Amino acid sequence: MENKIEQLKSLVQLLQSGYYVGRHTQKNERLAFLLIFVAITKRSIPQVVIIRRDQFLAGRYDCIFRGFFPRNKRVYRIHLPMSFLGYLDDYCFRYRVPSNGCLFSMNPEYVGNRVRELVKLQRWDISIGDIQKAIPYAYNSEEYKAMAYELLDMLWAIPCSEQYICTTAIQICSSIQEFERRYL
User: For the chain, which end, N or C, has fewer CB atoms within 10 Å of the first or last residue's CB respectively?
Assistant: First the structure.
């Protein structure tokens, strides 16, 4: 199973940094985030694509993701690090995801085709089913949390200073536009 985890990590890194297809370099942070959530939630791509922002709650010491098993109509909870909420808020801000909107506005077929394309390009032997089973432990066990936290740490692609400058610049521009609209 270690080999599948390493291949998943390499797959996420390639999606974050970009890979060559013909003459173009493809890069897709949203797809990398989606694949990490396929591994963490152990759900299929169509079930992960419909995850909404309001399914994440801030607990006292951690972030809680509330999911739903459609077959037996049971709710499950996954405890994530509190620092993940910072990434999630930044992600929702950058991709304009409303508080009750879906995190991934992607077609499940598109996701499957991109993953198969990249796996074939790299000549790996990993599938979507392998990604779902990458964390073999039960939800919220110590082993599960360690592996989930390790995968979530891969998402911090944007340093805080760039995020601060980007957010500050947008706030300054919107303040200037509002000032011009009111007083000029």
Answer: C
Whole-angstrom distance, CA of residue 85 vs CA of residue 100: 15
The closest alpha carbon to 131, from 51, 64, 15, 41, belongs to: 41
120: buried, middle or exposed (CB in 10 Å: 19+, 13-18, 0-12)? exposed
What pTM value is reported for the model?
A: 0.78
Q: Phi/psi at 2 (nearest 5 deg)?
A: -60, -40
Short-list 131, 106, 130, CA closest to 30: 106
Tokens of 143: 């082993």
Q: Which of 137, 129, 101 is nearest to 44 (CA)?
A: 129
Question: What are residue 62's DSSP bridge partners?
Answer: 81
How far is residue 165's CA from residue 159's CA, in Å, rounded to a whole number?
Answer: 10
Distance of alpha carbon 125 from alpha carbon 3, whole angstroms: 10
In tens digits, what is the pLDDT along the chain, a chain of 184 residues? 458 888 889 888 888 888 777 767 778 889 999 999 999 999 899 999 999 999 999 888 889 999 887 788 888 899 998 888 888 988 898 889 998 999 998 899 989 988 888 888 888 888 888 998 888 888 888 898 888 888 888 886 544 444 555 556 667 777 787 777 777 6
